[in-house]
Specification:
Structural class of chain B: mainly alpha
Radius of gyration of chain B: 28 Å
Strand content of chain B: under 5%
Strand order of the largest sheet of chain A: 1-2-3-4-5-6-7-8
Largest interface: A-B, 23 and 25 residues
Distance between the termini of chain A: 23 Å
Number of helices of chain A: 16
Strand content of chain A: 5-15%
Order of helices and strands of chain A: EHHHHEHEHEHEHHHHEHEHHEHH
Helix content of chain B: 55-70%
Largest sheet of chain B: 2 strands, antiparallel
Number of strands of chain B: 2
Oligomer: heterodimer
Number of helices of chain B: 13
Largest sheet of chain A: 8 strands, parallel
C-alpha cells in the first residue's frame, strides 16, 4: 500500500488573518482587535500562553495558538508532516479572508499562495496545495483565469468556504466550475455549521438576492430573508441543498463536502434533527445521486458521537458507492482545540473502529480517486 | 571658587546623575519591549508593504534567511539591518518572487513531482523583469527609479544602499522624537520613585555650604573620570543606573521617602503640593537628557578649573 493522504489540513497562520479575525469568537470588533494584539505583544502574549498551559482546557487552546503563531507555512507544514510516516501526502487548503468583513489583510492572499508554493518546492511530493476561490475576487472570467493559473502551476485542486459570505451557485463561479468539470479538478468545500463566517457590519444585497447561474423557477423575492444573527444566516451559504443548482448544471463536478455536514454542537443527527437540518443525510443523498460527490470526515472525527454513528452507518447502511467517496482528513491544526486529538491518535482511532481495509480506502484509494485530474 | 559657581555645579551634577538614571531606565524599557526593532520594522513596512496592489515585501524581506538569521530568537526582531544586508536581501526577494511565480510543478511518468523553472537570467535582468511585472504602485515607481539610474547590478546596489542610508538617518530622528515623548513620563516616574524634590535639593544646597562644596568636588572628580558618562547603551542600562544611584546616595543629599517625607506643617517645599510641583519641575528638567546636563557640567567644571589648557 503506498503512502496515505490526509485530504484536509491548513497551514495559514495568524499573519494571514485580518485584524478583527476573532470577531466570530468574541462579541465585538474592538475586543477582537485587542485580543489579537494581546497575543502578538511580546511579553504579554507569552504570559497568556503560559497561563493557558496551566489548565487542561487552556492547554489545547495554547497549542492551537502556538501553531497559529508559527512564523511561516513551511514550519507549520513540517509540524504536521512530523506526525506521519515519511512520504505521507497532505492536502493543504489556503483561505482568503479578505471578504469576511473583519478588516484588511496584512499579507495579501496571493502572498499566502506564493508561500504555499514555496512549501511545495521544499516538499514537492508530500505537499498538495489547493487554490482558494471567492467569487468576490473578480468577474467569472477573472476567477476562472485565477484558478487556472494556479492549477497550471501544479496546484492540486480548488478550495471553497462559502460561510465567508457567498453562495456556491454564484454566477461568478460558473466558468470556474465548467473548467473544473472539464479537467476533473477536485473542489473541496466547507460544509459544517461550525468554523469561521462573515462578520461584516453591513449585509450586502447579494446575501438576500444572489445572482445564480442556474436559478430554480419561481423564486421568492428576496430569495433569502436576512435575520440576525449572522451565525445562523450563514447556514444558507453552506446548506448542501444549495449545491443542487451547481450539480444540476455540472453533474460530473468533483465536489467534496468537508466535515460530513456536522459540527461539534450536533456531531451526529438524532431525533431532534429535522430533515432540513440533517446535512449529514443530505450529503449522503448527493453522493448517491452524483458520481463525483465526496465527503470527508475532517474535524468530525474528533467527536465520539459522530464516530459512533458514522462507523455504524459505514458498516451497516452505506452503499459501496458512498463508501468509495468518503475521504480521510483531519482539519489540522483546527483539531488542536480538541482534547487528546493528536494526528496519530485520530488516525489509529479511525483504523481501529473501521478496520485496516476501510482505512486504506478512506486514506488512500478514495483520496487518490478524488485528486486524480483528467 | 565662588559659592555661586559651586552651587551651580552641584545642582547640575545632581541633574546629570538623575538624567543618567532616567536614560538608563528608558533604554531598559526600549530593550525590554524591543521598541527599536519594532520601529525599524514599522519604518521598512511603511515603504515595502505593497499588499493592496502587490505583495507585502517587508514580510518577505524579514522572512528571508539573510535577515531572519540575524534574529536573536524566534520572537525577536533585528534592531539593526545594515544597508548592504538590506540591499542584497531586497533584490533577492524580488527576484525570487518573480522566479517562483513562474515555476511549475510537473508529475513525471513515475509519479514524482518535478520542478520546472524559468531559464536562468542574471540578477540585474531578473530584478528588472520582477519590477516590470509588478502592478503600478508607489513602490513600483521607487524601484523603477533605481533601475533607471543603474547600468548594472553594482550601481543598482549602490543606489538602493544610498537611499536606505538616507531613510535610516531620517528614521533615527523620528525615533528620537518618539522617545523624547516617553522621556518626560519616565523622568517623572524616576523622580517620584526617588522622591527627588527639586525645591528640597535646591534649598539644601543653597543653605549648606559644606554640602555644596563636597558635591561640587565630587562633580569635578566624576567629570574627570567619566568623560563619556552620558552615553548609555541598552545592554549596560541596568549596571549604569545602579552605579549612578550609588554615587547619588554618596552625595548625602535629601533623596528618598525616608530622608525627605512629606510634612503638612512644614515649609512650602515639604508640603504635598510643594512636593508635587518639585517633582514636575525635576521631571521637566530631566527631559533635557543626560548629554545636555553633562556638557553644561563639563563647561562649568572647566570654568572652576580656570579653563582647559589649550592644546
Amino acid at each position: 500500500m503506498p503512502s496515505y493522504i490526509n485530504c484536509h489540513a491548513h497551514t495559514f497562520n495568524a499573519r494571514h488573518v485580518p485584524e478583527y479575525f476573532l470577531s466570530f469568537r468574541v462579541s465585538n470588533k474592538p475586543e477582537a482587535s485587542f485580543l489579537g494584539r494581546l497575543f502578538r505583544t511580546p511579553v504579554v502574549g507569552g504570559l497568556v500562553l503560559k497561563m493557558l498551559n496551566m489548565s487542561a482546557n487552556g492547554k489545547k487552546y495554547a497549542n492551537f495558538l502556538r501553531i497559529g503563531e508559527m512564523k511561516t507555512q513551511d514550519v507549520i507544514f513540517e509540524d504536521i508532516k512530523s506526525k506521519y510516516p515519511a512520504g505521507t501526502r497532505i492536502v493543504v487548503l489556503p483561505l482568503n479572508f479578505q471578504f469576511m468583513g473583519a478588516g484588511k489583510l496584512n499579507i495579501p492572499y496571493t502572498q499566502q499562495l506564493a508561500e504555499l508554493k514555496e512549501v511545495k518546492m521544499k516538499y514537492p511530493d508530500e505537499c498538495l496545495p489547493f487554490v482558494f476561490i471567492d467569487p468576490r475576487m473578480g468577474t467569472a472570467e477573472q476567477n476562472m483565469d485565477f484558478v487556472k493559473s494556479y492549477i497550471d502551476q501544479g496546484f492540486s485542486g480548488i478550495k471553497m468556504y462559502p460561510s465567508l459570505g457567498y453562495y456556491p451557485f454564484d454566477s461568478r463561479l460558473e466558468l470556474m466550475y465548467e473548467y473544473a468539470q472539464e479537467k476533473g479538478i477536485p473542489i473541496l468545500t466547507h460544509c459544517s455549521r461550525g468554523g469561521i463566517y462573515y462578520v461584516g457590519n453591513d449585509v450586502p444585497d447579494e446575501f438576500q438576492n444572489p445572482q445564480s447561474f442556474n436559478p430554480p423557477a419561481n423564486l421568492p423575492t428576496p430569495r433569502f430573508t436576512f435575520k440576525k444573527p449572522m451565525e445562523d444566516f450563514k447556514n444558507n451559504f453552506i446548506d448542501p441543498e444549495s449545491y443542487y443548482e451547481v450539480l444540476l448544471k455540472f453533474p460530473k463536478l468533483k465536489m467534496c463536502f468537508a466535515h460530513f455536514g456536522v459540527d461539534d454542537d450536533k456531531p451526529y443527527p438524532d431525533s431532534s434533527t429535522t430533515p432540513d437540518d440533517n446535512w449529514y443525510e443530505k450529503i449522503v443523498n448527493l453522493m448517491d445521486e452524483y458520481e463525483n460527490v465526496y465527503t470527508d470526515i475532517s474535524y468530525s472525527l474528533t467527536q465520539d458521537k459522530f464516530m459512533a454513528g458514522f462507523v455504524n452507518d459505514y458498516k451497516m447502511k452505506f452503499s459501496d458507492k458512498v463508501k468509495n467517496k468518503i475521504l480521510y482528513g483531519t482539519d489540522y491544526f483546527m483539531i488542536e482545540q480538541e482534547d487528546h486529538c493528536t494526528e496519530d491518535w485520530l488516525f489509529n482511532n479511525v483504523k481501529t473502529l473501521l478496520g485496516q481495509e476501510a482505512m486504506d480506502k478512506l486514506a488512500y484509494t478514495n483520496v487518490e480517486d478524488f485528486l486524480m485530474q483528467a | 571658587m565662588t559659592p555661586l559657581l559651586s552651587f551651580c555645579i552641584a545642582i547640575i551634577f545632581v541633574l546629570a546623575l538623575l538624567s543618567i538614571i532616567t536614560t538608563s531606565v528608558c533604554e531598559a524599557i526600549i530593550y525590554y519591549f524591543r521598541t527599536r526593532a519594532t520601529f525599524l520594522l514599522k519604518t521598512i513596512n511603511d515603504v515595502l508593504n505593497d499588499g493592496l496592489l502587490n505583495k507585502n515585501y517587508c514580510q518577505l524581506l524579514y522572512d528571508h534567511p539573510q535577515i531572519d538569521l540575524t534574529r536573536k530568537d524566534a520572537n525577536s526582531l533585528p534592531a539593526y539591518i545594515s544597508s548592504s544586508n538590506f540591499t542584497e536581501t531586497l533584490i533577492d526577494v524580488l527576484c525570487r518572487d518573480y522566479e517562483n511565480a513562474n515555476i511549475k510543478f510537473i508529475i513525471d511518468d513515475e509519479g514524482n513531482t518535478k520542478v520546472k523553472e524559468l531559464p536562468a537570467m542574471d540578477q540585474f535582468n531578473t530584478f528588472k523583469a520582477a519590477v516590470r511585472s509588478m502592478n503600478y504602485s508607489d513602490l513600483q515607481i521607487l524601484l523603477t527609479g533605481f533601475i533607471k539610474r543603474s547600468a548594472n547590478l553594482k550601481e543598482l546596489q549602490t543606489n538602493i544602499s544610498n537611499w536606505y542610508n538616507q531613510l535610516m538617518d531620517r528614521a533615527t530622528g523620528w525615533f528620537k522624537i518618539k522617545i523624547q515623548r516617553w522621556l518626560f513620563f519616565v523622568s517623572l516616574a524616576v523622580t517620584i520613585a526617588l522622591n527627588a524634590n527639586f525645591f528640597v535639593i535646591v534649598e539644601n544646597l543653597w543653605t549648606n555650604n559644606q554640602l555644596t562644596q563636597n558635591v561640587a568636588v565630587m562633580a569635578q572628580d566624576y567629570v574627570a573620570q567619566n568623560p563619556n558618562a552620558s552615553a548609555v547603551t541598552d545592554s549596560l542600562a541596568q549596571k549604569t543606573a545602579q552605579q549612578t544611584l550609588t554615587i547619588l546616595e554618596s552625595t548625602n543629599l535629601p533623596f528618598g521617602w525616608r530622608q525627605c517625607p512629606i510634612k503638612a506643617n512644614a515649609g512650602f517645599e515639604h508640603t504635598w503640593y510643594g512636593t508635587a510641583i518639585g517633582w514636575i519641575v525635576m521631571g521637566v528638567l530631566l527631559t533635557f537628557g543626560a548629554p545636555f546636563w553633562f556638557q553644561l557640567l563639563s563647561k562649568l567644571v572647566n570654568i572652576r578649573k580656570a579653563g582647559v589648557r589649550p592644546d
